[in-house]
Amino acid sequence: MAKRKPKKKSKLQKKKESQSSKYWKQKADDAWKAEIHKVGQCEVCGRSDHQLHAHHLISRTNLRYRHDLSNGILLCSVHHTLGGYMEDICAEGDMRQVDNFKSWMEENRPGQYQWWQEHKEDKRKPEKTYQAIYEELNAGGEG
Fold it and tell me: The pTM is what?
């Protein structure tokens, strides 16, 4: 009797098997964003009628803290990126607005502000795979 050739794995199956693939990175990104969005309103002004954004305090290009919940804050579009003449506080506005955002964080979120300042220069690699991060974030959401 002739032996059957093993079935080829699909591209999706190969991605799922690699715990640090783009597939798991995107799933971890989505889970992190969902956790940050649970606040339900801008943490600066309390608005929930504007588009809300999960903002990374430390750039998401820093993979070590990309999915750390301490690295996130929910902001309306005005306090996240629009700023301009509209507001004095904006996380990604001009330098004066960003400085005002930092001052706001220090006064209103001192623990998170301190975490941010302690970790913002840390460039070490992540300790976990994207799949592990995704599973932890999902487990946190179930309890």
Answer: 0.82
